[in-house]
Amino acid sequence: MASTVLQFRDVSVVRDGNSILDGVNWSVASDERWVVLGPNGAGKTTLLQIAAAAMHPTKGEASVLEEKLGKTDVFELRPMIGFASTAMARKIPRNETVIDTVLTAAYSVTGRWNEEYEEIDTRRAQRVLSEWGLEGFADRRFGSLSDGEQKRVQIARSVMTDPELLLLDEPAASLDLGAREELVGLLGGYAASAASPAIVMVTHHVEEIPKGFTHALLLAKGGIVAAGPLAEALTSETLTEAFGIPIELTESNGRFAARAN
Ligand SMILES: Nc1ncnc2c1ncn2[C@@H]1O[C@H](COP(=O)(O)OP(=O)(O)OP(=O)(O)O)[C@@H](O)[C@H]1O
Ligand SMILES: [Mg+2]
């Protein structure tokens, strides 16, 4: 039975008098994989931060893994949430080894300190690395990896704790075509597995939506333009409305492309 992993009721976020999210109603079930699209500044990262229990709404109510934010201990909640973003990647020390980068996720820290790692954690980290195409990289320094390799290490890190909710903020940003396709393929394989958690991925490009993703949320100016199953929420019309220019969406074999019409 699917459970509800995210439930937003009339969620608004106001910063410096500006409305960043405005009355967002949204829910995500444990067997759904969502893509979030929208122009720069639409509020996508803010939405993910609430989903990550890293920020509370200014108004409205958000429940994460059936715990109401503001009424729960977020430090107990966060280990159940995998989160990969550029902001988090910046916190990873460049001289950290790849294996430690992934291992430290088990302790919700970046930068190895004095923790005693269990043998079982090390084995799991090795397995997660190989699942993300990183066998042989364990002893490399994070800062010596290519952008594509770094992105995959971040995702490996975010799934290390076997989370119930995986949040990815622009995981394919800045990747070349080959690295992007490799990552989208790995994400598609991961999303297709029944054992994988609910996923919410923010991206700027419909080309980056992996096969097996089920739902889309389109945001513009802090509000929802469309939300629901991919076939209904991701169309030429909804993209046109969200981005404010005529856009034509095409689909082929489970992958998407979009361009100005
Ligand atoms: N702490 C803050 N104080 C004031 N404004 C903020 C704050 N955080 C975010 N904003 C503003 O809120 C808006 C939404 O930001 P957010 O990062 O959620 O957008 P986004 O959709 O992720 O954009 P992008 O595609 O560029 O990553 C932006 O205009 C941003 O400048
Ligand atoms: Mg963002």
From TrEMBL:
Quote the SMART domains the UniProt record gives: AAA (SM00382)
Q: Does the keyword ATP-binding apply?
A: yes
Q: Which InterPro entries match?
A: AAA+_ATPase, ABC_transporter-like_ATP-bd, Metal_Ion_Import_ABC, P-loop_NTPase
Q: Which PANTHER family match?
A: IRON TRANSPORT SYSTEM ATP-BINDING PROTEIN HI_0361-RELATED (PTHR42734:SF5), METAL TRANSPORT SYSTEM ATP-BINDING PROTEIN TM_0124-RELATED (PTHR42734)
> To which species is this protein native?
Agromyces salentinus
ABC transporter domain sequence ranges = 6-246
Which Pfam families does the protein's record reference? Answer: ABC_tran
Indicate yes or no for the key word ATP-binding.
yes
Q: Name one GO molecular function term.
A: ATP binding
**Residue stretches spanning the membrane:** none
PROSITE patterns in the record, alphabetically?
ABC_TRANSPORTER_2
Name the family.
Belongs to the ABC transporter superfamily.
Protein name as annotated: ABC transporter ATP-binding protein
Superkingdom to which the source organism belongs:
Bacteria
Keywords on this record?
Answer: ATP-binding, Nucleotide-binding, Transport
